[in-house]
Amino acid sequence: MPTTTHTNKTSIVSLINEHLEEITAIRHDLHAHPQILFTEEYSSRLIQDELTKLGITFRTNMGGKEPGTGYGVMAHIPATVDAPGDCIGLRADMDALPITEMNTFGHKSTNEGQMHACGHDGHTAILLGVARVLSQLEERPNPVTLVFQPAEEGGGGGDKMCRDGVLKGDPKAGLGPAITRMYGLHGWPDMPLGTVATKPGALLAATDTFDITITGVQGHAAYPHLCNDPIVASAAIISAAQTLVSRTVSPTDSLVVTFGSIHSGSAYNVIPEAAELKGTIRTLDMDTRAMIKARFFELVESTAKAMGCTADITWKDGYPVTRNDENEFERVTQIASQATLTNRFELVKEPSMGGEDFSYYCLAVPSCFYLIGLNESETQAYPGLHTPTFDFNDNAIAIGMEMMCLLALS
Questions:
Q1: Start-end of CATH 3.40.630.10 domains in the chain
Q2: What is the mean pLDDT of residues 97-109?
Q3: How far is Cα 265 from Cα 234, in angstroms, rounded to an integer?
């Protein structure tokens, strides 16, 4: 690795500026070649090529559906001192979404029906930029592990990276000691460029999903008394499920019950045999999460039974609550307030009911997930996450790089 001495914040910013044009080009390359969860071969290969150029030791075949598979990459930059501090983990997600891009710029998606609509191309480019800067620092007080993670968008890649040992390290293979604390970021279109924001405790929700099949007795629409109507039963279930929010949890607790899909029937004059419902339940408290799951099963099954139908429920445990450690929140707050490229730190007032699989790292080690603003306009809204016109703001790359570098050295 290069051994030029750059240890203060001014020198870090100078190094960031030195590499920024190339890192921005990498971001555009990643944006033009998106791949959805568990298929991120292009991004993984690009990451490996960049790490190889820098002489950074890395491990691949992580974060897939099965152990020892997947496109995740774990890389390690050792400390340069005899008595190193904590091993710092820095994470970037790298998968895209199944969305057809509507942008027209030169780096738009070349993969039909797939795009980086959540900014993971920006997150990955930032971490590759951090690798460049840290590898040029002669004085590194902490060992640093870089985590390039697949399958954040519904695949639980964070959980699978943990399963494959990313937090444990591997000194014999040059991958350093176990990670002691962990940081991740997300570009945020609703915040001004230059702003860094987070909060202690719950920042993002647990996100569980369900599939329900309501089965009744099919028949002629003219003779409903001879049938057991799964559509009527479904309507009652959908309505009754909202009482979980209004009458089951405290008004000061947070719960969202959403039915996102309903399919049943094929004709005007036929009461169908079955109806299929899909949805999500989001919570911020682990006890509430467990209680609501039990109550949801009771409510759905008993309501279906009262109408002469049966309910088959498939419950899928989603991501846990993304819960920031108090001490690591304070560390991010302090660094964001002192960083050269940030304008201000903002305390997030209320958690988002969106989910994030960074939560799995939070369960394992003291961690903090934070947001960086993307919007440069005072009058126009920035395109939202998961929309076909979103694009990560290149002017936020340097801000993300500085934050991650300073956290790595803290």
A1: 9-204+321-409
A2: 98
A3: 12
What pLDDT does 38 receive? 98
pTM of the model as a whole: 0.94
- Residue among 38, 172, 23 nearest 93 (CA): 38
- CA dist 157 and 205 (Å) reads 17
SS3 at position 284: coil
> What count of Cα atoms within 13 Å lies in the side-chain half-sphere of residue 153?
22
CATH number assigned to the domain with residue range 9-204+321-409, chosen from the 4 options 3.40.630.10, 3.10.310.10, 3.30.70.100, 3.40.50.300: 3.40.630.10
Q: Where in the chain is the domain with CATH 3.30.70.360?
A: 206-319
**Is it true that domain 206-319 has CATH number 3.30.70.360?**
yes
- Give whole-number Cα distances, 77 to 56, 81, 140, 176, 398, in Å: 6, 12, 9, 8, 20
C-alpha closest to that of 403 among 339, 346, 349: 339
What does each C-alpha distance from 152 to 92, 186, 232, 355, 362 come to in angstroms?
A: 10, 12, 37, 10, 15
